[in-house]
Amino acid sequence: MEPGALLVCVGLLLFNSKSASSAVCDVHIDPSRVVVRFGDPVTVNCSTTRGDVLGAGWESSVSPVNEPNSKIAVWNVSSLTVWDAEPKCFINYMNEPRQCAEKLDLVIYKYPENVSLIAPDFMKIGEESNITCQVLDVAPIRYLSVKLYKGDEQLGNRSFTHSSTRFPVNESIPFPVTPTRADNGVEYTCVAELKLGPGGPKLNPAKRSPPLKIPVFYKPSLLSAAEENVEVCEGGSIVLNCSADGSPAPTYEWKYPKADNVQEITKDGVSTVNITRASYSNARVYECHAKNTYGVAMKNITLTVKGGIPWVRIILIIIGVALALAIIAGGIRFSRRRKSGSVL
Fold it and tell me: Do residues 124 and 172 touch, judged by C-beta distance below 8 A?
């Protein structure tokens, strides 16, 4: 091969090699993902390793950058207060492709301003109700996780990963709840958390609602047997008890023939009938009705009055015998006096 032809081939190889290296978009953003709180500062570098650079810069609605004859452009914002900044780094080259651009993966976030619960005044046992978590002024919603707790038990979890909204929003998330008797008086809490992923805060602070207690209403149920048989000796005393669990707290009503020696007392959720100096007229069935708006529970107590206490009878016999002896002794003394008088 002639020397001139060899030089041409070498030149073509060098040209093709240079063109191949220039034909690649080479844009490096550092850090590649930025998570910044609304109002905080942010700094991001953009650079290229290609040699045919005309300039670099950032397209953005806030603090745009244009650096001619530079391989590096720095996007620096002292306080980011624009939700739709969408910064994009661009590099201009002498050769094709003459411009390369890459959008910054930017997440601007704001923790919820307030988290609260909206719930009915009361719930009924076995019936489904909605407890709503209300989260105010949070962004971006696609990273939001909302959970409802009953005590320490998680009842539900809601996320919004398919939402593309960048601006702060208010969200109301209903959670269906079917309460049981044991749920009366328990505390419910809503927890809202932003799970921001790589580049975000190491700790994702959760915002909690104030705890809320929701009454659960149900009909009364007896705390002892519905049928009961009791005995008392004639002249003795006895207390008949009736108690029930219900919500709202039940009221009590006793049904029996009234008597002077019978008294009703209701205290601390227990209703009693107190019988003193029991007589056979007190022997009967005493009905207790525990009731609230949602139902009635009934208890029957059958009272039997037995014969008097033996020692009472013994005392009466002794008294009777003593009286009899006193009468007899008196008669004898009287008789003797009469005989003495007649002799005189």
Answer: no
